[in-house]
Design brief:
Number of strands of chain A: 22
Helix content of chain A: 25-40%
Largest sheet of chain B: 2 strands, antiparallel
Oligomer: heterodimer
Strand content of chain A: 25-35%
Helix content of chain B: over 70%
Number of helices of chain A: 18
Radius of gyration of chain A: 25 Å
Number of strands of chain B: 2
Order of helices and strands of chain B: HHHHHEEHHHHHHH
Shape of chain A: globular
CATH architecture of the largest domain in chain A: 3-Layer(aba) Sandwich
Strand order of the largest sheet of chain A: 6-7-8-3-9-10
Distance between the termini of chain B: 25 Å
Number of helices of chain B: 12
Radius of gyration of chain B: 21 Å
Structural class of chain A: alpha/beta
Largest interface: A-B, 30 and 21 residues
Largest sheet of chain A: 6 strands, mixed
């Protein structure tokens, strides 16, 4: 199987150039897709992956370059053109109409009509069964699409693509909302599509998935194509080097050994249906990675530790003493901080300015006179200014409204808020999600420095490279439980991924 | 080519400037037009009348701003004012002292605000439906207590609040001013005010930053209750009688004032001085319409349209201006 050079080329994009005001989004990028292959398109946020896909889809127009389908040059000026040429694009939020039936969703926009121009559901259900190479959705075709699980919705949308006689299916970050079973199921579906001669373009920034599913990989970095290669001839290190343009060891700063003292101990922490029986210890100066897929309970565990949700059972000890954390107020009192997953929704008050956001969790420090609760503007500046400098927030000033800062700088403001509250234990939930590469590296440095100064850090990330690269130890979570504890210098990406996907640890050496 | 872009920039700047200060310009324009065109408008009596109206509506609106600032709102303000007026009047008529009566009235406001706050912030009911319901309950209750009849014959000395003055400044105007200053100070200079602003900006982030969201929302409702009670007392004192629906029509005006406020200077945010500008606009507009002898139904329609316009200005236009 796979993509040898002898298989016919379905799509070729040659020398694509696209300029956006002030920056070049694509710089002479070539890209080709062979029949029956899974072609991974990877790169950091903002590297140009989605721009390329949007040009092929006809959403954007290339400033230069040409697109050939079956060797014939085509002008794709809108999404309708690309659909007619047999290209299908599945975005991660799937574009389903939840209250319409599955069959209606499959034939959305191309309903069969009878002589009176009326749409017949029964006819559609019948037709849905006749789609060549269709996937088995495993649900009633008359049921509303909103009732389906995410993977069933994925299969439904893939069937929609097949009903349009698509030959190349583009999938954008397909696994970002899937649980581990669903990821496996999706991969089986992709194998099925491949076997029936379709080509799949798999857009992702998750390297480990590329190795599981793709035949070839094209890496894009800073609007340029770094290269295309057969996956079986590559290894993680090399692809990562292509993506980031530097060695892994230069990306992740060296870290000190954690200290002896345990700063947080969790015993049998449980919340019904979410996390079960979680026990672990966090040392001062340690970065503890939490790996796992969506639904594995990582974020939920973080919220329990921070008091954002109520626990059903279990105990938390800090410096040997049992603490009772019922709410974020308690957690902050015990110097625990949470840098949440959705910084705009959970971390920042967007209409407020930089200094107000930084001091938000430490308003008690701003009292003007002893015991009289009046805010001191002077103390506010005095507290916020050094933090803006130490976290290197690029802002026009302390009075800058945070809504208009870039993602990376916003995330630094959230971190500065917790530094202001003198947090000793920091929980980072997907800290580098959606921020550009430069800010990402800066954030790695900040996290490593925090640990070096004795803070205990819990790091949740879907980017396994990040988890393995930054952490001292890794807890792998699966279905709300801790599946394994790994020492990061004794493990590698593929074994962490296997554990995340729910495979057993047998084949992997048990660390102490 | 260059001069075109230059002009475009200055035009958009002008637009933003007009957007932010538009309400103040409208207010000044109204004053100017009415003063020139309507002789009765600039009479001394009418001026005092305007000040009185401004005072009562401001007191209501200050409380409402505290709720709106946190994304809550309180439809029961008029009802709370009505029941307060009745309780105070009943106590006075039954021979109780003025301090006790006023204290009881304010206590009523606190308790009803507490009830709203507990239901909305702690029990998690929708602010709209919940305060709509409490409004109906309170109004029904006050109707029952009075059997629909106004209470007269309040002791003459009670009129110092609504009609009296100190150093020629009407007392109700002083009360309004003190409330405005106090609330402005709380919002601008205290941790509580900062917390309330954070909750209004993003309640989820506020909670995850260690702010007790429920407690602060409860405080907002209690404050709104207190302001409504004060407004009810001032109103009762001004007209020297109390009836079971007295003050209820201020609800719409207060909304209008607050939303005009949210379309002033800091677009899309409720703030105390904006609300004050809103009060002035509403009061002057209504006064002008009355002098023009516009029929009541038309006044209501115009008030509704002002409210709609203010909501549009503070919302979508605000978003455009900020972008």
């Amino acid at each position: 199987m796979g993509a040898e050079n002898s298989t016919p080329i379905l799509l070729e994009a040659l020398g694509i150039v696209k300029d956006f005001p002030g920056q070049r989004a694509l710089d002479h990028v070539d890209f080709d897709v062979h029949k029956g292959e899974v072609h991974a398109l990877i790169g950091e946020n903002g590297a140009g992956k989605s721009t390329l896909i949007k040009i092929i889809a006809g959403v954007y127009h290339a400033d230069r370059g040409e697109i050939l389908i079956d060797g014939v040059q085509q002008h794709i000026s809108n999404p309708r053109d690309s659909q007619a040429l047999g290209l299908a694009f599945i975005h991660q939020d799937l574009n389903i109409v939840p209250h319409l039936s599955v069959a209606e969703n499959i034939f959305l926009g191309m309903y069969p009509r009878n002589g009176l121009g009326m749409v017949r559901l029964s006819k559609m259900v019948e037709m849905a069964g006749d789609i060549p190479d269709a996937l088995t959705i495993g649900a009633d075709l008359r049921a509303p699409a909103g009732m389906l699980s995410v993977i069933q919705q994925w299969k439904m949308v893939i069937n929609r693509a097949l009903a349009c006689k698509s030959r190349i299916i583009f999938m954008d970050e397909p696994t970002s909302s899937l649980t581990h079973e669903e990821v496996n199921e999706l991969f089986r579906s992709i194998q099925h599509l491949k076997a029936s001669g379709k080509a799949i373009v798999y857009v992702s920034h998750r390297l480990e998935e590329v190795f599981r599913i793709a035949d070839r990989v094209t890496v894009i970095k800073d609007a340029k194509k770094v290269g295309t290669a057969l996956v079986r001839q590559m290894d993680t290190e090399r692809i990562y080097r292509m993506m980031l343009g530097r060695e892994l060891k230069d990306v992740f700063p060296p870290k000190d050994e954690p200290r002896e003292k345990v700063c947080l101990e969790v015993k049998n922490l449980t919340r019904a249906h979410v996390v079960q029986d979680i026990s672990f210890r966090l040392h001062e100066g340690e970065i503890l990675g939490l790996a796992g897929l969506v639904g594995s309970g990582r974020t939920e565990l973080a919220r329990l530790l921070f008091g954002a949700d109520r626990k059903d059972g279990g105990e938390i000890f800090m410096a040997g003493e049992k603490v009772n954390i019922q709410s974020p107020v308690d957690a902050i009192h015990h110097r625990i901080a949470l840098v949440p997953e959705e910084r705009r929704i959970q971390g920042l008050v967007l209409p407020m300015d930089v200094k107000q956001n930084i001091t938000l969790a430490s308003l008690g420090k701003l009292w003007r006179w002893l015991r009289i609760p009046v805010l001191s503007r002077h103390k506010e500046k005095f507290l916020a200014q050094p933090l803006v400098e130490s976290t290197a927030i690029k802002t026009s000033g302390l009075n800058q409204i945070v809504e208009y800062l870039s993602g990376g700088n916003q995330q630094k403001v959230v971190l500065a808020k917790w530094l202001c509250s003198e947090a000793k234990i920091l929980i980072f939930d997907e800290p580098t999600k959606g921020i550009d590469v430069g800010a990402k590296f800066a954030f790695y440095g900040l996290i490593t420095n925090l640990a070096r100064r004795g803070a205990g850090v819990i790091l949740i990330s879907s980017d396994l490279v990040e988890v393995v690269g930054l952490s001292h130890r890794i807890l792998v979570m699966n279905q709300g439980m801790i599946k394994a504890v790994l020492l990061s210098h004794e493990t590698d990406l593929p074994s962490v991924l296997r554990l995340c996907l729910g495979e057993d640890q047998e084949s992997i050496a048990e660390p102490e | 080519m260059k001069w075109i872009t230059g002009k475009a920039i200055s035009r958009s700047e002008l637009f933003i400037y007009l957007g932010r200060y538009g309400t103040i310009i409208i207010f000044l324009a109204m004053i100017l037009c009415f003063s020139i065109l309507l002789p009765p408008f600039r009479s001394r009596d009418n001026l005092m009348n305007l000040l009185g109206q401004t005072a009562i509506l401001s007191i209501f609106s200050v409380g409402m701003t505290c709720c709106l600032k946190m994304g809550d709102f309180d439809l029961s303000i008029g009802a709370i004012a009505a029941i307060t007026g009745i309780v105070v009047a009943k106590l006075l008529v039954n021979g109780h002292g003025i301090p006790l009566s006023i204290f009881s009235g304010i206590l009523i406001g606190v308790l009803l605000g507490l009830m709203n706050g507990l239901l909305v912030a702690y029990a998690g009911l929708s602010a709209f439906v919940c305060t709509l319901a409490t409004m109906s309950v309170i109004l029904g209750f006050s109707m029952g207590v009075t059997k629909g009849i106004s209470i007269w014959n309040l002791p003459q000395s009670f009129d110092f609040i609504g009609r009296g003055d100190l150093l020629r400044i009407p007392n109700r105007f002083s009360i309004m001013f003190i409330l405005l200053i106090v609330v402005w100070f709380i919002h601008a200079y205290t941790p509580t005010g900062r917390r309330m602003e954070a909750i209004g900006g993003n309640a989820i982030s506020a909670r995850l930053s260690g702010i007790n969201v429920e407690w602060n929302r409860l405080l907002g409702y209690v404050f709104s209750g207190i302001c409504s009670a004060i407004a009810g007392i001032v109103l009762t004192s001004a007209v020297m009688s109390a009836n079971p629906t007295q003050g209820t029509h201020y609800l719409l005006d207060a909304f209008g004032a607050c939303f005009i406020g949210a379309a002033t200077v800091r677009i899309g945010q409720f703030h105390i001085w904006g609300t004050f500008v809103g009060v002035l606009i509403v009061v002057v507009a209504i006064n002008g319409l009355i002098i023009l002898m516009v029929p009541g139904y038309l006044t209501d329609m115009i008030k509704g349209m002002i409210l709609l316009l203010a909501i549009v200005m503070s919302g979508s236009v605000g978003k455009f201006l900020r972008s």
